[in-house]
Amino acid sequence: MNLEFIVRKLELSVRCGEDKLGREVRGGYVGDLLSDVIGNSNEGDIWITRQAHQNIVAVASLKDHAGIILVNSSEPDSDTLDKAIKEEIPIMVSELPGFEVVGEIYKLMHT
User: Fold this and answer.
1) Closest CA to 16 of 43, 54, 45, 42
2) How does pLDDT run along the chain (111 residues), one tens digit per residue?
3) Who contacts 2 (Cβ-Cβ below 8 Å, separation ≥6)?
4) Domain with 14 in it: what CATH number?
């Protein structure tokens, strides 16, 4: 499954990285504590978070995540988007809460 499929199925708004939506999603991780994400997420994960500051891009790049989904209509600021563009990390936004986003992605991955 790739990011484009998830974007389409969950009706996500892509804020940057449209040209990277072909990336394969191997798993997922949900969390807002950066040290937890660094310690427990995996390469190829889609990261679901409420955090919208530029440090999320550094973590996603470090862990080689497929992309980041911001939940509850969180919006990245311009510094975050600039860094994500530079690091080639797609950022998408959902109006849904994290629990629902994770549930929908889990269903897509396991059906």
Assistant:
1) 54
2) 999 999 999 999 999 999 999 999 999 999 999 999 999 999 999 999 999 999 999 999 999 999 999 999 999 999 999 999 999 999 999 999 999 999 999 999 998
3) 21, 22, 23, 24, 25
4) 3.40.1390.20
Q: Tell me how many domains the chain contains.
A: 1
Looking up tokens 């978070």, which residue turns up? 49
User: What does pTM read for this prediction?
Assistant: 0.97
Domain carrying residue 76? 3-109
Contacting residues for 14 by C-beta, under 8 A, at least 6 apart: 7, 21, 90, 91, 92
